[in-house]
Amino acid sequence: MDAFSLCWSLAGLALVGIFTNGVTGFDEMDLFNGFNDTSVYEKQENGANVLMVGLTLVQAASAKGAVCLDGSVPGYHLYPGYGSGANNWFIHLQGGAWCDSVKFCQYRKRSSYGSSTLMEKVLAFTGILSNKASENPDFYHWDKVKVRYCDGAFFSGDSENKAAQLQFRGKRIFLAVMEDFDGKGNASSKAGKYIYFKF
């Protein structure tokens, strides 16, 4: 066997080993990298590979008045599904309590719960957001979205306080985010199942 064939044979065996051991292969990660200009990669954390998913900002939301407490655009983290899970959506609406006074809302708009400019650019998708069948047997291959909470009224308000320079646009944020990621997975979100949750 010539050296060229031997190299390709060894590379093939290595890839088969990676896929059969449940570790994401390079081609799968390449498929997701750059998806919607969102970075998706795995990193080592406490001896295990952890899926890391980048923040997508909804730039078109501003024109619709769908903005965070401070007026910045909302964001979400999206991991596109694959295989039989590609037409199904697991949508996590980030929790974080309401801001119940003008003073508290003004404080909050200077945090990641009130401004997308202060949100983490990359989050770990673990547990029920994991892409590993051993960790998340029911939803590991579904389209998964984590919608960041930044409106102070759990995606339900549609008002403002001009004097305090606060925007309460949760309802608009929810609609703008849903519209933005619809069709960005492997299929339209209208085609499959949805599960929403918050914690």
3D architecture notes:
Pfam families: PAE. It is found in: Secreted, Cell wall. Residues 1-25 form the signal peptide. The protein is α+β, with helices and mostly antiparallel strands. The chain has one domain. It is 22% helix and 23% strand. The protein contains 4 helices and 9 strands; from the N terminus they run H-H-E-E-E-E-H-E-E-E-E-H-E. The protein has helices at residues 3-20, 26-32, 102-108, 170-181, and strands at 40-45, 48-57, 75-79, 89-93, 122-125, 143-147, 159-161, 166-168, 194-198. The strands form 2 sheets. Strands 1, 2, 3, 4, 5, 6 and 9 form a 7-stranded mixed sheet that branches. The radius of gyration is 20 Å and the shape is elongated. The termini are far apart. 35% of the residues are buried. The model is unreliable at 1-36 (pLDDT under 50).
The total strand number stands at 9
Structural class per helix/strand content? alpha+beta
CA gyration radius, whole angstroms: 20 Å
**Bulk shape:** elongated
Beta-strand residue fraction = 15-25%
Order of helices and strands: HHEEEEHEEEEHE
Head-to-tail CA distance between termini: 58 Å
Tally of contiguous helical segments: 4
Give the % helix: 10-25%
Outline the biggest β-sheet. Answer: 7 strands, mixed
Overall tally of structural domains: 1
EC number: 3.1.1.-
Signal peptide: 1-25
Pfam families: PAE (PF03283)
Keywords: Cell wall, Cell wall biogenesis/degradation, Hydrolase, Secreted, Signal
